[in-house]
Inverse folding.
């Protein structure tokens, strides 16, 4: 059990002579500027390309002028230090907004284009959000009906909003403000059932950007992806890396998240030289030959454990990155090239060594550093650290003083990551898992208690417990075990529909089990492993040879394509009750699951279908019919 940060530190355990402590420092670093670097490029190279939005080119001068107009429109209502919730997708409008808010000194709070009405409502009830920026159709009721200021943001191009307004609703403003000096704040999963916000200073982001430019050589003439979901902090690395390097940003079409083939096509067609991507998105690419006609030189991958090294045919340098939002996007990296002797090794690579300005300490349960080679909790310090949470009590619990026995010059705080790691002799880290209940689903940190709290706000639910089931390759999915309130008999599908507005896509369970009670362990607590085992036992692989289904039943299998699609979806989601008449997303399908389904279909049949074809299909049977159509060879002469 992790000791309270306020508890007395026990005397250090003597270590064997010659056993160095698990403490490592990255190269020296000094914070620089972020906005000032962009403005310098806008002055020096005003006609250089800043954003490539399909066929439209935005120069640095164009972007600078557009941001100035938005900042002027907001200046009367948004002041330095104000939180501004941004409900936009990866688009030119998002880039203009980020620059405009930085120029105002406001705090950019990215919520994403579809954050869920109740989730936004919870944020605005807790935090002192000055306004929300986005299409009025995606805003919560209080902001849809409040005062709107139409903003001169681009409404054409990739993922552009139909209309963009600043929406004000003073009646629902919370009390928590960002600490002084914050450039942005991002939401992370909250153990209280409500998301928590962590604020980051411009100086901390600048150190990460300086590393990125130095490591990848990003420079004028290069093209940088804008691919990561807006609700997650790595998109800030993409966005500002390009704008502080004189390079061009290329917003990614939404369907590239769902289809690894479309992703590599987009890399090729847009001439990308640098990209950032989530590990689950890249994994399918490593299972097939790497495209040899890409200009991509550097690929930064993170968000989940990488399960194998890139092969010898991978022409891009791949950086396996690790970093919590509380340590400003990237804390450690391990660089891999196709020419490495270890290329193609099926063993997971390390998460690497400390970035410039980063200090790593691996500690035991009492907060004392362990010897290298021993497992422990990773604590992080240095320029990378966030200012803290907008909840001071939570900040005090997670950002603690360094161990008394360590001399760490200029390090007055360490962030407790809750991650279990091992430091090797060279100072690199191996990631071993979590110490608490927090999990990663599709590269996103999820606290099961947040999902449980979303269910328990439903009056039909007495108690909910969420567990994680993993398949043979380690991919996880959430299962909710719900005990209904007395006198109610809710349907699982109805409960899932009720929680979707509260949660990000990755946090919505793939299945709901209605239970009469929960197994308890020897301490009287819910036995989560036993619950997970029950769910696993009740989720057998759908039979592949069934041919006697009732034709009137939505599960009736008429073709090999229907069998393949239904079996694969059931396997991926762990839900044997899914029927051919179910729509993919209604059944719990996500972008990552879609990518795996499409990869399986192509591997088994040789037919390549695209994510939009899956999403546009009325149900799984219609998608299977499309597969049948593509599998059927045309008659000779047709």
């Amino acid at each position: 059990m992790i000791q309270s940060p306020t508890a007395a530190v026990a005397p250090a355990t003597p270590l064997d002579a010659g056993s160095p402590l698990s403490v490592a420092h990255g190269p020296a670093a000094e914070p620089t500027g972020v906005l000032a670097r962009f403005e310098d490029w806008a002055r020096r190279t005003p006609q250089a390309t800043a954003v490539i939005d399909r066929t439209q080119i935005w120069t640095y001068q164009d972007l600078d002028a557009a941001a100035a107009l938005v900042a002027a429109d907001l200046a009367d209502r948004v002041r330095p230090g104000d939180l501004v919730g941004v409900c936009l997708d990866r688009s030119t409008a998002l880039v203009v907004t980020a620059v405009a808010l930085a120029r105002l000194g406001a705090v950019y709070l990215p919520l994403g284009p579809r954050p869920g009405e109740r989730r936004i409502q919870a944020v605005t009830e807790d935090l002192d959000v000055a306004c929300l920026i986005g299409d009025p159709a995606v805003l919560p009721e209080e902001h849809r009906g409040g005062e709107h200021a139409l903003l001169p943001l681009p409404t054409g191009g990739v993922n552009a909003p139909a209309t963009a307004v600043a929406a004000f609703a003073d009646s629902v403003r919370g009390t928590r403000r960002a600490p002084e000096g914050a450039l942005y704040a991002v939401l992370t999963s909250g153990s209280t059932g409500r998301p928590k916000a962590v604020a980051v200073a411009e100086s901390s982001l600048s150190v990460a950007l300086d590393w990125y430019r130095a490591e990848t050589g990003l420079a004028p003439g290069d093209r940088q992806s804008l691919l990561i979901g807006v609700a997650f902090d790595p998109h800030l690395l993409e966005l500002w890396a390009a704008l502080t390097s004189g390079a061009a940003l290329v917003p990614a079409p939404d369907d590239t998240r769902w289809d690894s083939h479309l992703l590599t096509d987009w890399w090729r067609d847009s001439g990308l030289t640098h990209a950032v991507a989530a590990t689950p998105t890249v994994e399918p690419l490593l299972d097939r030959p790497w495209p040899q006609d890409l200009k991509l030189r550097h690929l930064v991958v993170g968000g989940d454990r990488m399960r194998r090294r890139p092969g010898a045919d991978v022409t891009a340098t791949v950086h396996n990155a690790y970093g919590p939002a509380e340590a400003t996007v990237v804390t450690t990296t391990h660089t891999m090239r196709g020419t490495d002797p270890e290329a193609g090794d099926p063993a997971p690579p390390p998460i690497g060594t400390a970035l410039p300005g980063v200090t790593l300490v691996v500690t035991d349960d009492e907060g004392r550093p362990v010897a290298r080679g021993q497992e422990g909790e990773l604590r992080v310090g240095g320029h990378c650290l966030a200012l803290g949470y907008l909840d001071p009590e939570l900040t005090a619990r997670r950002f603690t003083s360094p161990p008394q026995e360590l001399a760490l010059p200029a390090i007055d705080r360490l962030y407790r990551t809750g991650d279990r790691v091992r430091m090797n002799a060279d100072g690199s880290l191996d990631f071993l898992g979590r110490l608490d209940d927090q999990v990663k689903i599709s590269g996103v940190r999820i606290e099961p208690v947040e999902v449980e709290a979303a269910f328990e706000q439903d009056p039909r639910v007495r108690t909910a417990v969420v567990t994680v089931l993993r398949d043979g390759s380690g991919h996880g999915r959430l299962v909710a075990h719900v005990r209904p309130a007395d006198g109610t008999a809710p349907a699982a599908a109805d409960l899932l529909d009720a929680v979707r507005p509260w949660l990000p896509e990755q946090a919505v369970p793939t299945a709901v089990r209605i239970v009469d009670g929960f197994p308890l362990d020897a301490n009287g607590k819910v036995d989560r492993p036993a619950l997970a085992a029950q769910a696993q036992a009740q989720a057998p692989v759908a039979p592949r040879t069934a041919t006697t289904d009732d034709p009137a039943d939505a599960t009736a299998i008429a073709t090999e394509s229907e069998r393949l699609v239904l079996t694969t979806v059931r396997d991926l989601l762990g839900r044997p009750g899914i029927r051919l008449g179910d729509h993919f997303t209604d059944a719990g399908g996500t972008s990552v699951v879609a990518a795996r389904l499409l990869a399986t279909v192509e591997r088994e049949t040789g037919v390549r279908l695209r994510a939009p074809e899956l999403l546009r299909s009325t149900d799984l049977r219609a998608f299977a019919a499309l597969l049948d159509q593509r599998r059927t060879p045309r008659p000779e002469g047709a």
In short: DSSP finds 17 helices and 28 strands in the chain. The chain has a mean pLDDT of 86. The first strand starts at residue 23 and ends at 25. The longest helix spans residues 60-74.
